[in-house]
C-alpha cells in the first residue's frame, strides 16, 4: 500500500530540524527499499523549511502511523501537523528514476485536496486527468497520483511532483486539471521542493 505523508514544520523549528538531521536520515535508512519519493519543502518567500514529504510503500495503516509518528522530527516537535493519505503511484516509478532534469527549472510538490462529497464521475475524471497530465506534461512529471481514503478507493485529491519553469507554470498546470475544471478541489497548495535524502559523501 502506498502512502503519501506530508509534515508541516512549526514556526521557528529550523534549528531543531538541523540538529536532528542525522537521526532523521538514520530513521529513513530503514525504509530505503520502500521509499518512492522524499524531500523537504520550502516557502515561496523567505528562508527556512516549510515541511517534509515522504511517499512510501507500507503494509497497512498501522505501519504508516508508525512511520509518521515515530520519526525523530515528529517526536521532537519539529512538525505542527501531519497529513497521511493512501496514494496510488500512477507512473509506477520512484523519484530516482526521473530523467527529465532541465537547468533553471524548479521542482514542486502540489497538494490538491478535494471536498468531502463523493465524486460520481471519478472514473471519467481520472482518465481525463491522466490524458491531460501525461500528454501535456509527461516529461515534467516526477510522480503523481490520487490522494485516497484508507479504503484505497474513495478519492480525496491529487498529489503531483513536477519539474516546471516556475510557480506560475505549476499554477497554470493545476488550473487546467480536469478535477479543478470540475470544481472538485477545495484547496491547491504549491510548495517549492527538492529531492531529499542523506547527502552524498
Total number of domains: 2
From the spread of the alpha carbons, the general shape counts as: globular
Determine the fraction of residues in helical runs and give it as a percent range: 25-40%
Q: Which strand order spans the largest sheet, edge to edge or round the barrel?
A: 1-3-2-8-5-7-6-4
Task: Indicate the proportion of strand residues.
Answer: 25-35%
- Name of the CATH homologous superfamily of the largest domain: Dimeric alpha+beta barrel
> Would you tell me which CATH topology of the largest domain applies?
Alpha-Beta Plaits
Q: What is the first-to-last residue Cα distance? A: 32 Å
**Average predicted local confidence, pLDDT:** 95
Number of strands: 8
Radius of gyration: 16 Å
Structural class: alpha+beta
Which stretches are low in confidence, meaning pLDDT under 50 for 5 or more residues running?
A: none
CATH architecture of the largest domain: 2-Layer Sandwich
- Please summarize the sheet with the most strands: 8 strands, antiparallel, barrel
Secondary-structure element sequence? EHHEEHHEEHEEHHE
CATH class of the largest domain: Alpha Beta
How many individual helices? 7
Amino acid at each position: 500500500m502506498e502512502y503519501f505523508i506530508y509534515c508541516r514544520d512549526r514556526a521557528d523549528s529550523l534549528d531543531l530540524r538541523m540538529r536532528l538531521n542525522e537521526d532523521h536520515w538514520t530513521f529513513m535508512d530503514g525504509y530505503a527499499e520502500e521509499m518512492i519519493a522524499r524531500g523537504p519543502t520550502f516557502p515561496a518567500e523567505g528562508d527556512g523549511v516549510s515541511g517534509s514529504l515522504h511517499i512510501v510503500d507500507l503494509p497497512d495503516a498501522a505501519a504508516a502511523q508508525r512511520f509518521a509518528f515515530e520519526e525523530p522530527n515528529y517526536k521532537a516537535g519539529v512538525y505542527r501537523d501531519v497529513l497521511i493519505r493512501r496514494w496510488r503511484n500512477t507512473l509506477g516509478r520512484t523519484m530516482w528514476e526521473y530523467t527529465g532534469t532541465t537547468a533553471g527549472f524548479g521542482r514542486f510538490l502540489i497538494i490538491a485536496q478535494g471536498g468531502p462529497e463523493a465524486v460520481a464521475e471519478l472514473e471519467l475524471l481520472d482518465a481525463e486527468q491522466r490524458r491531460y497530465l501525461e500528454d501535456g506534461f509527461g516529461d515534467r512529471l516526477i510522480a503523481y497520483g490520487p490522494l485516497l481514503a484508507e479504503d484505497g478507493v474513495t478519492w480525496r485529491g491529487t498529489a503531483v511532483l513536477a519539474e516546471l519553469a516556475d510557480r506560475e507554470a505549476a499554477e497554470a498546470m493545476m488550473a487546467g486539471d480536469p478535477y479543478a475544471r470540475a470544481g472538485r478541489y477545495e484547496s491547491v497548495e504549491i510548495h517549492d521542493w527538492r529531492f531529499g535524502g542523506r547527502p552524498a559523501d
